[in-house]
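Need Nuclear transport factor 2 family protein's 3D structure for a figure. Predict it.
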Amino acid sequence: MPIQKKQVVDLLKAIETAAAEPVGVINPDKYIQHNLGAADGLAGFGALLAALPPGSAKVNTVRVFQDGDLVFAHTAYDFFGPKIGFDIFRFENGRIVEHWDNLQETAGPNPSGRTMIDGPTELKDLDKTEANKALVSAFAYDILVNGRMDRLAGYFDGNGESYRQHNPQIADGLSGLAAGFAALAKAGIAIKYDRIHKVLGEGNFVLVVSEGSLGGKPTSYYDLFRVENGKIAEHWDTIEAIPPNAEWKNGNGKF
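Structure prediction for Nuclear transport factor 2 family protein:
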């Protein structure tokens, strides 16, 4: 495993083990925190760890990828209850200087029996990273932001029924996606993507970081896609409500 990926995996595991050494990868003089429940800097990270009852946390990082100076991980957590999280860390001169994340309480399995974290982890098609990022970026703007549903089928293989879904509420296939959106609409819950902040990728995996609203409430969406043969084949996500500004413990914003 490349050194910066390993450093991220070890740092996240330190939440469970309380090991001090992995935390040394964080630049003590510059650590910009975008988790709005944590204060800025290394002290904020330390305060989060101190709030956990000793021996209570569990951390299992299932996927880790790197795009330039950014390493992003997909992790099953258990602290104050089970959660699935995406974490993004920015490296500068060999140290971590910035962190973003998105956490959702673990739910599911979904109607197709898939969990929020299971499925393929193997990195493939490193030579297709940029093409896969371009594909997923186009999908995100066409479908998620602009609602161009006439273009939806073109992003999937065949009739789209081989598409694997890990959102805990939605079944596999484009039919499952349509049914999921219909159920939300029936419940009067509007799902909106307003702005895409990041599209990160390595090989066959691409992560999209977006801002929008769910049921009218400000929301952060992290969507991970697996691409196969130039089509979207699989999807995982976490959805997190963005708290009101008055509750933020740092001024850096979620994104």
